[in-house]
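## retry 2 of 3
previous attempt timed out at serialization; input unchanged, resubmitting
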Amino acid sequence: MNAVWKDSLEELFRYNYRPLCLYALHYLKDADLVEDVVQECFATLWEKLQTGAAVANRRAYLYMTVRNRCLDHLRRKGIPTEQLKPYDTYGIIDDDDAQERSQTEARLWTAIDSLPEKCREVFLMSKRDGMKYGEIAEELGISENTVRNQISKALKALKDGAIKIYMFFFG
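## retry succeeded, writing output
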């Protein structure tokens, strides 16, 4: 196997696994199933490339394959065809929006993952789990002021990260 080919596939996986999982979540609600689907799609691409098949746009191929596998799964469950569209908290969205949102969501989760551990924990308890500052403080055995400071620190770090990304592309 060509080392460059292997490296490019590993890079493709590293940069696209999370966005593809988030994309599949727009179709399926089961995180474990989503991971299985995405991993199967990477395996399918791997096998296809090993046979010598040319795949010009591997990223586009993966999105199409993930979408088709999700739709196949929903059809097998007997889901009506009109519900075989991606959706989010606002309702049904088109496939291009689902791809774009999954990439944005992946960047956000990568930024959240890069926060210091305690800061990330407090931030997620507040924003993801909807806990109030007092509840977080009580559960973690810290003051409400510490909770407030950690959330402020997280929001600043996420904002600074977003500015750096914006400046990289448009600055």
